[in-house]
Amino acid sequence: MDDTLCRRFFHQPSCPLQRQYEARRAVFLDGLSQQETAARFGYSYAAFRQLVHQFRHDCAAGTPPPFFSSRAPDGPRWHRRRPLGRSSQPGRTRAS
Question: How many structural domains is the chain composed of?
Answer without folding.
Answer: 1
